[in-house]
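Model: Ready when you are.
Researcher: Fold this.
Model:
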Amino acid sequence: MTVAVVGVGYTDFRSATPDVTFKEQMFEAAVKAYTDAGVSPRKDIGSFITGAEDYWEGYSIFDEFVPDQLGATLRPVCTISGDGLQALMTGVMQVETGMFDIVAIEAHSKASDMLSFTGIVSHGLDPVYNRSMNVSPFFVAGLEMRKYLSETKTTREQCARVVVKNKKNALDNPLAAYPASMSVDEVMNSEMVSDPLSRRDLSPLADGAIVFVLASEKRAKELSDYPIWLKGLSWISETPWLESRNWSEATYAKLASKKAYKMAGIIDPKKQLDLVEVDDWFSYKELQHLEAIGICEKGQAGKLLEQGKFDRNGETPVNVSGGRLGAGNLLEASSLQSVLECVLQLRGHAGKRQIKNARTAAAQSWRGIPTATGSMLILSNEK
């Protein structure tokens, strides 16, 4: 591929933002991204894409609110009803067609405006067999966690260590909503949500917005002194049926990573990736995703975590940003938060959490329960 990130813009991520609307958040992030890229939305950008789900927004046909905030009035605008990484990949494909040299990508979260997050998630369940049970949708994560722990011999303590690590990493991320110094016992002794899933195993919701500017190779070299090249990408949706999926591993992540690695020429991800941002909507998912994308063998992630292999100074730094557990669950924008961290690291702009000599990074996403949809993106500061 010959597409690069040339501009990034973002707001802080906060547990609640009663003083601003989602439109103001989008505008703030967009202005920063266009300034970073040195482009005008009216003169330079050919297409605008947002990753959003009407259920989260509380509006039907949400993209009617997109043009004004992004400077996209009377321009091509589309909404991807998926996570931000899927929207970004749509932008890559648009640039690859040759029809657009520059494309803007946006995703955001105004989760604090929701009256019932679990009520919305429940609407994603099968209405006949699952939703009609009228229980918290987190039972899906509880069952999957139980199956994963049972089959791989991973422990609850190892999952709790994911929370401790990511919240600690978030202490050095000024954007993060939930940085904390926390003990394993504090995680394990928190309120049980769906055994063995405790309250602190869940990533807390947050508000925020992120905008990226993508450009073709020619324009990227003209616009940026440090373009970040998108080397490989893929997204996969496996079965939507809870009753027929593999509960012990993340098949979607395994399939998506294989395709992305092949496109990027990654043969040994453990050696070739300098950092990895994986989805940690729930603590056990970080371990499950690391195994699925080939960072370690199935059942080994928890042990390697205990050995410090995934710490910031470890062999493969994982979720240096703090992930969803530390930065906050930004809904469809969480995957762009992962990409943002990769871009900042590869630019050398990550501040206290900077990984030395980072050249290649991976961002992996999952759309959350009850889906089995995931994406994978490989980035590099080397063409």
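Researcher: Now this one.
Model:
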Amino acid sequence: MTDSNKDFESADLLMTLRALVTELRTLRVPIDDELWAFDDIALYLKLSQYTVERRVVVQPGFPNAFQPCANGKGSRAVKRWFAGEVIKWARQNRARLPTTRNACRVA
């Protein structure tokens, strides 16, 4: 194999990889349709997962969770929420959100 063939194959491979990266970036699920678990909500709200489980998702008006893999009564499947619904709820209820420990220390 000559050097020019190697260069051509390398350039072709690079173009293919760039096309794949572009395609993968465009196939992202829109944020509104992403499914979030407790840890995702905690990360977004900058709260601990414990606080989210005990003080946030139990508030009246918080979006209903669903369990995609639940197979009956007493199922231990992880609860999930649509991210768009959680974000909307957080914006509408920001005054009712628990404060972080760091915020309490600073005040």
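Researcher: Key takeaway?
Model: The mean pLDDT is 86.
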